[in-house]
Design a protein that fits this description.
Structural class: alpha+beta
Order of helices and strands: HHEEEHHEHHHEEHEEEEEEHHEE
Strand content: 15-25%
Number of helices: 10
Radius of gyration: 20 Å
Protein backbone atom coordinates (compact mmCIF):
# COMPACT_ATOMS: atom_id res chain seq x y z
CA UNK A 1 0.00 0.00 0.00
CA UNK A 2 1.37 3.39 -0.84
CA UNK A 3 0.67 7.06 -0.31
CA UNK A 4 2.27 10.23 -1.56
CA UNK A 5 5.92 10.33 -0.45
CA UNK A 6 5.70 6.77 0.89
CA UNK A 7 8.97 4.83 0.77
CA UNK A 8 8.54 1.21 -0.33
CA UNK A 9 10.43 -1.56 1.40
CA UNK A 10 11.94 -3.99 -1.10
CA UNK A 11 11.34 -7.65 -0.42
CA UNK A 12 12.77 -10.85 -1.81
CA UNK A 13 13.57 -14.48 -1.20
CA UNK A 14 14.65 -15.57 2.24
CA UNK A 15 18.09 -14.50 3.34
CA UNK A 16 19.46 -13.19 6.60
CA UNK A 17 18.14 -9.69 5.99
CA UNK A 18 14.70 -10.91 5.00
CA UNK A 19 14.51 -13.26 7.94
CA UNK A 20 14.84 -10.21 10.18
CA UNK A 21 11.86 -8.84 8.31
CA UNK A 22 9.80 -12.02 8.63
CA UNK A 23 10.01 -11.71 12.31
CA UNK A 24 8.12 -8.74 11.41
CA UNK A 25 7.52 -6.11 13.55
CA UNK A 26 9.60 -7.24 16.20
CA UNK A 27 12.95 -8.27 14.78
CA UNK A 28 14.51 -4.90 14.04
CA UNK A 29 17.14 -3.72 16.47
CA UNK A 30 16.89 -0.16 17.67
CA UNK A 31 20.53 0.48 16.94
CA UNK A 32 19.79 0.39 13.23
CA UNK A 33 16.84 2.64 13.81
CA UNK A 34 19.02 5.25 15.46
CA UNK A 35 21.53 5.23 12.60
CA UNK A 36 18.94 5.48 9.84
CA UNK A 37 16.59 8.01 11.40
CA UNK A 38 16.19 11.32 9.63
CA UNK A 39 15.09 14.66 11.02
CA UNK A 40 11.52 15.81 10.66
CA UNK A 41 10.81 18.09 7.72
CA UNK A 42 8.41 21.00 8.10
CA UNK A 43 6.62 22.91 5.37
CA UNK A 44 4.70 26.09 6.17
CA UNK A 45 1.52 26.26 4.10
CA UNK A 46 0.40 29.62 5.49
CA UNK A 47 0.25 31.59 8.75
CA UNK A 48 -2.04 28.97 10.28
CA UNK A 49 -0.76 25.57 9.11
CA UNK A 50 2.47 23.56 9.01
CA UNK A 51 2.99 20.10 7.55
CA UNK A 52 5.56 18.10 9.51
CA UNK A 53 6.79 14.78 8.07
CA UNK A 54 9.33 12.16 9.05
CA UNK A 55 10.26 8.66 7.85
CA UNK A 56 12.48 6.31 9.82
CA UNK A 57 13.05 2.62 10.44
CA UNK A 58 10.97 1.05 13.18
CA UNK A 59 9.16 -2.27 13.65
CA UNK A 60 11.28 -3.84 10.91
CA UNK A 61 9.96 -1.50 8.22
CA UNK A 62 9.77 2.16 7.24
CA UNK A 63 7.38 4.20 9.35
CA UNK A 64 6.20 7.53 7.97
CA UNK A 65 4.24 10.20 9.80
CA UNK A 66 2.60 13.27 8.32
CA UNK A 67 1.15 15.82 10.74
CA UNK A 68 -0.75 19.03 10.04
CA UNK A 69 -0.86 21.62 12.81
CA UNK A 70 -0.64 25.34 13.47
CA UNK A 71 2.48 24.92 15.62
CA UNK A 72 5.56 23.30 14.07
CA UNK A 73 7.20 22.87 17.47
CA UNK A 74 4.13 21.21 18.99
CA UNK A 75 3.83 18.86 16.03
CA UNK A 76 7.51 17.88 16.23
CA UNK A 77 7.26 17.24 19.96
CA UNK A 78 4.18 15.06 19.49
CA UNK A 79 5.87 13.15 16.67
CA UNK A 80 8.92 12.50 18.84
CA UNK A 81 6.75 11.06 21.62
CA UNK A 82 4.83 8.92 19.11
CA UNK A 83 8.07 7.39 17.80
CA UNK A 84 9.23 6.81 21.37
CA UNK A 85 6.01 4.89 22.03
CA UNK A 86 6.59 2.82 18.89
CA UNK A 87 10.09 1.92 20.11
CA UNK A 88 8.86 1.08 23.61
CA UNK A 89 6.08 -1.20 22.43
CA UNK A 90 8.30 -2.85 19.82
CA UNK A 91 10.70 -3.85 22.60
CA UNK A 92 7.78 -4.93 24.79
CA UNK A 93 6.36 -7.33 22.22
CA UNK A 94 9.51 -8.77 20.73
CA UNK A 95 9.90 -12.54 20.81
CA UNK A 96 13.61 -12.23 20.02
CA UNK A 97 14.67 -10.27 23.08
CA UNK A 98 15.12 -12.90 25.79
CA UNK A 99 14.10 -10.44 28.50
CA UNK A 100 10.56 -9.82 27.20
CA UNK A 101 7.41 -11.51 28.42
CA UNK A 102 6.76 -12.99 24.97
CA UNK A 103 10.22 -14.58 24.85
CA UNK A 104 9.77 -15.89 28.39
CA UNK A 105 6.38 -17.36 27.51
CA UNK A 106 7.79 -19.10 24.44
CA UNK A 107 10.75 -20.37 26.44
CA UNK A 108 8.99 -21.52 29.61
CA UNK A 109 5.38 -22.01 28.55
CA UNK A 110 4.02 -19.60 31.15
CA UNK A 111 4.44 -16.00 32.26
CA UNK A 112 2.85 -13.93 34.99
CA UNK A 113 1.86 -10.28 35.16
CA UNK A 114 2.48 -9.27 31.56
CA UNK A 115 2.07 -5.61 30.71
CA UNK A 116 -1.43 -4.31 29.98
CA UNK A 117 -0.40 -3.74 26.36
CA UNK A 118 0.76 -7.32 25.81
CA UNK A 119 -2.36 -8.64 27.54
CA UNK A 120 -4.57 -6.48 25.32
CA UNK A 121 -2.94 -7.70 22.10
CA UNK A 122 -3.06 -11.37 23.08
CA UNK A 123 -6.68 -11.15 24.20
CA UNK A 124 -7.67 -9.47 20.95
CA UNK A 125 -5.75 -12.11 18.99
CA UNK A 126 -7.67 -14.86 20.78
CA UNK A 127 -10.95 -13.14 19.95
CA UNK A 128 -10.02 -13.17 16.27
CA UNK A 129 -9.02 -16.80 16.51
CA UNK A 130 -12.46 -17.61 17.82
CA UNK A 131 -14.57 -15.60 15.38
CA UNK A 132 -12.49 -16.75 12.38
CA UNK A 133 -12.80 -20.42 13.35
CA UNK A 134 -9.05 -20.65 13.74
CA UNK A 135 -7.94 -18.88 10.55
CA UNK A 136 -6.12 -16.26 12.65
CA UNK A 137 -3.71 -17.98 15.02
CA UNK A 138 -0.76 -16.44 16.87
CA UNK A 139 0.49 -19.91 17.88
CA UNK A 140 1.93 -20.61 14.38
CA UNK A 141 5.40 -19.65 15.62
CA UNK A 142 6.73 -23.26 15.61
CA UNK A 143 5.72 -23.63 11.94
CA UNK A 144 7.10 -20.23 10.91
CA UNK A 145 10.44 -21.02 12.56
CA UNK A 146 10.49 -24.48 10.99
CA UNK A 147 10.17 -23.02 7.49
CA UNK A 148 12.74 -20.36 8.28
CA UNK A 149 15.23 -22.97 9.41
CA UNK A 150 14.50 -25.21 6.42
CA UNK A 151 14.99 -22.50 3.80
CA UNK A 152 17.94 -20.81 5.48
CA UNK A 153 20.05 -23.96 5.86
CA UNK A 154 21.21 -23.82 2.25
CA UNK A 155 18.84 -26.48 0.92
CA UNK A 156 16.15 -24.05 -0.15
CA UNK A 157 13.37 -26.58 0.36
CA UNK A 158 10.35 -26.91 2.65
CA UNK A 159 10.64 -29.10 5.75
CA UNK A 160 9.98 -32.81 5.70
CA UNK A 161 6.33 -33.76 6.15
CA UNK A 162 6.97 -35.51 9.48
CA UNK A 163 8.62 -32.40 10.93
CA UNK A 164 5.78 -30.20 9.70
CA UNK A 165 3.15 -32.49 11.22
CA UNK A 166 5.01 -32.44 14.51
CA UNK A 167 5.05 -28.63 14.51
CA UNK A 168 1.37 -28.46 13.53
CA UNK A 169 0.41 -30.43 16.62
CA UNK A 170 1.56 -27.41 18.64
CA UNK A 171 -0.60 -24.94 16.71
CA UNK A 172 -3.93 -24.04 18.29
CA UNK A 173 -4.53 -20.72 19.99
CA UNK A 174 -7.33 -22.35 21.95
CA UNK A 175 -4.52 -23.95 23.97
CA UNK A 176 -3.42 -20.53 25.25
CA UNK A 177 -4.85 -19.92 28.69
CA UNK A 178 -5.23 -16.32 29.85
CA UNK A 179 -6.13 -15.42 33.41
CA UNK A 180 -6.01 -11.68 33.90
CA UNK A 181 -2.42 -10.83 32.98
CA UNK A 182 -1.09 -14.38 33.47
CA UNK A 183 -0.62 -16.50 30.34
CA UNK A 184 0.09 -20.22 30.03
CA UNK A 185 0.38 -22.78 27.23
CA UNK A 186 -1.48 -26.06 27.59
CA UNK A 187 1.14 -27.93 25.50
CA UNK A 188 4.89 -28.04 25.90
CA UNK A 189 6.75 -26.59 22.94
CA UNK A 190 4.12 -24.08 21.89
CA UNK A 191 5.10 -20.56 20.93
CA UNK A 192 3.47 -17.37 19.73
CA UNK A 193 4.30 -14.61 17.30
CA UNK A 194 2.41 -11.32 17.34
CA UNK A 195 3.52 -10.33 13.83
CA UNK A 196 -0.02 -10.41 12.44
CA UNK A 197 -1.54 -8.00 14.94
CA UNK A 198 0.98 -6.10 17.07
CA UNK A 199 2.17 -3.72 14.36
CA UNK A 200 -1.37 -2.45 13.95
CA UNK A 201 -1.76 -2.06 17.70
CA UNK A 202 1.47 -0.05 17.90
CA UNK A 203 0.33 2.22 15.05
CA UNK A 204 -2.93 2.84 16.92
CA UNK A 205 -1.02 3.77 20.07
CA UNK A 206 1.15 6.21 18.12
CA UNK A 207 -2.00 7.80 16.71
CA UNK A 208 -3.41 8.12 20.22
CA UNK A 209 -0.24 9.91 21.34
CA UNK A 210 -0.61 12.41 18.49
CA UNK A 211 -4.30 12.95 19.27
CA UNK A 212 -3.46 13.58 22.94
CA UNK A 213 -1.32 16.50 21.74
CA UNK A 214 -4.27 17.92 19.78
CA UNK A 215 -2.78 16.79 16.45
CA UNK A 216 -6.17 16.07 14.97
CA UNK A 217 -4.98 15.78 11.35
CA UNK A 218 -2.34 13.10 10.79
CA UNK A 219 -1.41 9.96 8.88
CA UNK A 220 0.85 7.12 10.02
CA UNK A 221 2.07 4.50 7.55
CA UNK A 222 4.03 1.55 8.94
CA UNK A 223 4.91 -0.56 5.93
CA UNK A 224 1.30 -0.76 4.74
CA UNK A 225 -0.47 -0.56 8.09
CA UNK A 226 -2.03 2.89 7.85
CA UNK A 227 -3.95 4.92 10.42
CA UNK A 228 -5.46 8.28 9.56
CA UNK A 229 -7.20 11.01 11.52
CA UNK A 230 -8.87 14.12 10.21
CA UNK A 231 -7.84 15.57 6.86
CA UNK A 232 -4.90 16.65 4.81
CA UNK A 233 -4.53 20.17 3.39
CA UNK A 234 -7.70 22.13 2.51
CA UNK A 235 -9.92 19.67 4.36
CA UNK A 236 -9.47 16.94 1.78
CA UNK A 237 -9.35 13.27 2.86
CA UNK A 238 -6.10 11.33 2.84
CA UNK A 239 -5.48 9.39 -0.38
CA UNK A 240 -4.15 5.84 -0.20
CA UNK A 241 -3.16 3.65 -3.15
CA UNK A 242 -3.42 -0.12 -2.63
CA UNK A 243 -0.05 -1.79 -3.26
CA UNK A 244 0.27 -3.56 -6.61
CA UNK A 245 1.28 -7.18 -5.84
CA UNK A 246 3.48 -7.12 -8.96
CA UNK A 247 5.16 -3.87 -7.85
CA UNK A 248 4.45 -2.26 -11.25
CA UNK A 249 2.41 0.62 -9.82
CA UNK A 250 -0.77 -0.73 -11.41
CA UNK A 251 -2.61 -0.01 -8.17
CA UNK A 252 -5.64 -2.27 -7.65
CA UNK A 253 -7.53 0.67 -6.16
CA UNK A 254 -7.21 4.13 -4.67
CA UNK A 255 -9.27 5.09 -1.64
CA UNK A 256 -9.90 8.18 0.46
CA UNK A 257 -9.79 8.13 4.26
CA UNK A 258 -10.51 10.63 6.99
CA UNK A 259 -10.44 8.82 10.33
CA UNK A 260 -9.85 5.08 10.06
CA UNK A 261 -7.33 2.42 9.18
CA UNK A 262 -6.33 0.12 6.35
CA UNK A 263 -3.82 -2.74 6.19
CA UNK A 264 -2.68 -4.97 3.35
CA UNK A 265 -1.28 -8.49 3.56
CA UNK A 266 0.40 -10.00 0.51
CA UNK A 267 2.62 -12.82 -0.66
CA UNK A 268 5.05 -10.21 -2.03
CA UNK A 269 6.08 -8.91 1.40
CA UNK A 270 8.45 -11.63 2.68
CA UNK A 271 8.83 -14.99 1.00
CA UNK A 272 11.13 -17.98 1.26
CA UNK A 273 11.31 -19.04 -2.40
CA UNK A 274 11.40 -17.17 -5.70
CA UNK A 275 8.07 -18.65 -6.78
CA UNK A 276 6.44 -17.20 -3.61
CA UNK A 277 4.82 -20.52 -2.80
CA UNK A 278 6.15 -20.28 0.75
CA UNK A 279 5.88 -16.94 2.47
CA UNK A 280 5.36 -15.34 5.86
CA UNK A 281 1.60 -15.97 6.07
CA UNK A 282 0.80 -19.48 7.29
CA UNK A 283 -2.47 -21.41 7.20
CA UNK A 284 -2.65 -22.83 10.74
CA UNK A 285 -4.65 -25.82 9.51
CA UNK A 286 -2.09 -27.02 6.94
CA UNK A 287 1.18 -25.31 7.86
CA UNK A 288 1.59 -24.12 4.28
CA UNK A 289 1.17 -20.64 2.85
CA UNK A 290 -2.25 -19.86 1.32
CA UNK A 291 -2.07 -19.83 -2.48
CA UNK A 292 -5.37 -18.32 -3.62
CA UNK A 293 -4.71 -14.62 -3.06
CA UNK A 294 -1.91 -12.21 -3.92
CA UNK A 295 -3.05 -9.45 -1.60
CA UNK A 296 -5.82 -8.62 0.84
CA UNK A 297 -6.58 -5.07 2.01
CA UNK A 298 -8.93 -4.45 4.92
CA UNK A 299 -10.54 -1.22 6.06
CA UNK A 300 -11.42 -1.03 9.75
CA UNK A 301 -11.80 1.44 12.59
CA UNK A 302 -8.37 0.58 14.03
CA UNK A 303 -5.05 -0.48 12.53
CA UNK A 304 -4.92 -3.47 14.89
CA UNK A 305 -8.20 -4.80 13.55
CA UNK A 306 -7.21 -4.09 9.94
CA UNK A 307 -3.86 -5.81 10.50
CA UNK A 308 -5.35 -8.96 12.01
CA UNK A 309 -8.23 -9.15 9.54
CA UNK A 310 -6.05 -8.77 6.44
CA UNK A 311 -4.02 -11.76 7.61
CA UNK A 312 -7.18 -13.69 8.47
CA UNK A 313 -8.82 -13.14 5.08
CA UNK A 314 -5.58 -13.98 3.26
CA UNK A 315 -5.66 -17.40 4.93
CA UNK A 316 -9.23 -17.99 3.82
CA UNK A 317 -10.57 -18.79 0.36
CA UNK A 318 -11.51 -15.40 -1.20
CA UNK A 319 -15.24 -16.12 -1.28
CA UNK A 320 -15.21 -17.22 2.33
CA UNK A 321 -13.08 -14.23 3.29
CA UNK A 322 -15.54 -11.80 1.72
CA UNK A 323 -18.46 -13.45 3.50
CA UNK A 324 -16.52 -13.20 6.75
CA UNK A 325 -15.84 -9.48 6.28
CA UNK A 326 -19.46 -8.85 5.27
CA UNK A 327 -20.48 -10.31 8.63
CA UNK A 328 -18.39 -7.80 10.58
CA UNK A 329 -19.71 -4.27 11.13
CA UNK A 330 -17.46 -1.40 10.10
CA UNK A 331 -15.05 -3.45 8.01
CA UNK A 332 -14.52 -3.86 4.26
CA UNK A 333 -11.98 -5.69 2.11
CA UNK A 334 -10.47 -5.83 -1.35
CA UNK A 335 -8.88 -9.10 -2.52
CA UNK A 336 -6.58 -9.55 -5.49
CA UNK A 337 -6.37 -13.26 -6.33
CA UNK A 338 -3.48 -15.11 -7.96
CA UNK A 339 -4.93 -14.38 -11.40
CA UNK A 340 -5.10 -10.61 -10.66
CA UNK A 341 -8.89 -10.73 -10.37
CA UNK A 342 -10.27 -8.18 -7.90
CA UNK A 343 -13.06 -9.03 -5.46
CA UNK A 344 -14.54 -6.69 -2.88
CA UNK A 345 -16.85 -6.82 0.10
CA UNK A 346 -20.33 -5.33 -0.11
CA UNK A 347 -19.43 -1.88 1.18
CA UNK A 348 -16.04 -1.34 -0.44
CA UNK A 349 -16.20 1.97 -2.29
CA UNK A 350 -13.68 2.41 -5.05
CA UNK A 351 -12.24 5.81 -5.88
CA UNK A 352 -11.12 4.74 -9.37
Amino acid sequence: MSITNHISLETGPMNRRNFLKISGILGMGLGATAVLSSGAEAVKFNQELHKVTKTRLAMGTFVSMTLLHSSKDQAQQAMGEAFEEIDRLTREMSRFDSATAIAQLNRQGAVKDVSPEVAAVINRALEYHQISNGAFDISVQPVVDLFKDSFSNGKGAPPARARLESALRLVNAADIRVSGRDIQFRKDGMGITLDGIAKGYIVDRASEILASHKISNHLINAGGDIRTMGHKRFGKPWTVAIQDPQKKKAYPDIIHLTSGAIATSGNYEVYFDREKMFHHIVNPATGFSPDTSSSVSVLAHTAMDADALSTTVFVMDPDKGIRFINSLPGTECLIVDKGAKKMASAGWKSAM
